[in-house]
Specification:
The protein is built from no helices and 17 strands. The protein has strands at residues 2-5, 10-14, 22-27, 33-38, 43-47, 52-57, 64-69, 75-80, 84-89, 94-100, 106-111, 117-122, 126-131, 136-142, 148-153, 159-164, 169-173. With 174 residues, it is mostly beta strands. The radius of gyration is 15 Å and the shape is globular. Keywords: Repeat, WD repeat.
Amino acid sequence: MRVWDLASMTQKACLKGDGGPINSVSISGDGKTAVSGSWSRTLSVWDLGSMTQKARLEDNSECAWSVAISEDGKTAVSGSDDKTLRVWDLGSMTQKARLEGHSKAVGIVAISGDGKTAVSGSNDETMRVWDLVSMKQKACLEGHSGWVTSVAISEDGKTAVSGSGMSTLRVWDL
């Protein structure tokens, strides 16, 4: 994983440690922590101040396709080939929950700015909404006729957008 200084357009570091191709990376709002997900069924947590690996989270049973980190850097959510999302506590570096609901691989995840809601997109053509306080599914949103390949959620958690492999974009009131 390469870390770049965008002011000078130079590489600050090349970090190694995942053990496989990196599929996704996310940075905390304060820019101090990054989390990467890889083919090696792991997530790596990185300290961007010291440019070192803080932890390797190894409880994904399949490839970690996507990862999102909360604005405050305390929580990460990963989406996997095993049809689940995992919620991680980045303070203790432990898994808080395993969320089930999708019928196919979870390819993309996002977390609201307040850290209370996550959305996920899957090859099952749905976007799901998750309550990260109760660790329960709030909704299953259907309407795409292809894989949901991208998701985004507003800062306040009230609106989400999803895109699919069939060239459609949907806007959702949550």
